[in-house]
Every structure is written in C-alpha cells, then in structure tokens.
Design brief:
With about 260 residues, the chain is an alpha/beta fold. About 30% of the residues lie in helices and about 15% in strands. It has five helices and eleven strands. The chain has a seven-stranded mixed sheet with strand order 1-3-2-6-11-9-10, sandwiched between helices. Strands 4-5 form a two-stranded antiparallel ribbon. A hairpin with a 2-residue loop joins strand 4 and strand 5. The N terminus is likely disordered.
Length: about 260
Amino acid sequence: MTVAAEPLSILPESSADVATVIGQTRSFPLLLVCEHASDAIPAHLENLGLADADRYSHAVFDIGAAHLAERLSDALGVPLVIANWSRLIYDLNRPPEAPDAIPARVETIDIPGNRSLSAADREARAEALYYPFHKVVSDTLDAFDTAPTLVTIHSFTPVWNGAPRAVEIGFLHDADPTLAEAMLAAYDGPHRTALNEPYSAKDGVTHTLARHATARGLRNVMIEVRNDLLSDDAAIDVVATALAGALTAALEEVAA
C-alpha cells in the first residue's frame, strides 16, 4: 500500500499532546515511564499501511503495559509519564540517530508507511514526538524534592521470530545494575524472572534510562513483562502486586 507523503504536522492539532502525566509528585521519590503505551496512529497516516491483522499487534504498542503501569502508579502513589501515540510513528525509547526509531519492519510485520522516509521526514517525527516526550520526562523528574528512582515499564511477546521465550519477567539495567539485581533478588511472585532478558542494554533498549537516569546518577530499572501475563485485569493485578512488593523491597535494600 502506498501511504501519502506526511504533512509538516505529524500529529493532529486537536490532540497533539505526546504524553500524559498521571498522578502527582509524591514524597516517595519514584517516577514510572511507559514509552510504548499507546496504539494510537493519526488518521492521516492511514494506519501506516499495516495489515488489518497487525493493527493492534505487539509491533504497534506494548500490550498490557499501560494498564500495568497505571496499577503500579496507583499502588505506589507515584507519578507516571505515559505516551499517547504508537511506537511505530516514533519509538520514544530510541534516539533519533537509531535506524529502528522508525522501523519499516518489526519481526514478521511490515510497516509500509515507514519505508523510504527522507531525513526530513524522520526529523519531523522526532521533533513532533521524541523531543517533547523526553522534555515531559525531564520536567517531571525535576519536580521531585529529592533525587527520584526511574522505572520504565514494557511488555514483550511470548514468541519472537518463531522462538518461544521462557522468561516471564525481566529486570534490565543501563550502566548501573544495582536496582535491577536487587529486584531480581527480592521478587517472590509466581513468575520466571531473569536479569537482562529478553533484551539488554546492548540491544539499545535502555535509551530512556541512559538519557534520564544514568545522566543524572539516578537509580533505575527497566521492567519487561511477557504480555500473555497481562491478558486481563486479574492477571495484571497479580503482576502489579508482585512487582510493587519487589520494587519496594529492592529500594529499601539499596538504600541500606
């Protein structure tokens, strides 16, 4: 399918906000971020030419991650920065120079609307989404009275390129492994956990942590949950309760 050339304004003027901040900055110094929360694609991008079967797939957004992040925000009483647009328009967890910031293919899924974009097209998407989103994250971190911890929430598909994934929850880190290792040790939920699985920093997935936490010297962790564990409210509650407990215990441990 041929997708029309993009206008200068990537997002509709009526709803151009790139992020929503849920909750208020509390005395507990922790910020949650969910970069791949949304499946929304502006109408003029014509679903980026996606096949109907792929429109709400894991390529478009992290299935269940938004609901999990909201449960954690509520349980911990901490703010959450949540993205309002699909990762396929621009992957907010990638820098502008990364080729997969605007992917033309994700696993077996083609994204025709992302093919053959000019440098100007790519920069327009970064200007519309990447820079404003990360300003919201930076501004929200600045609003804390004491140095906060940064936690990003993601989900992943149970099968990738035909290979099943045994791990159910992964704790990933950027340069500092302290909090990820402490969460792995503290986790006592009913799931198979691992450090730096199914991805790690070498895969380029810790950009948000590097940009906002490593650069500021903040404790940080990226949480990846297999999306079949987030299929309904009851399942999400189980994961959220276990993660909230592990995170609280891990923060107490590293503080001590």
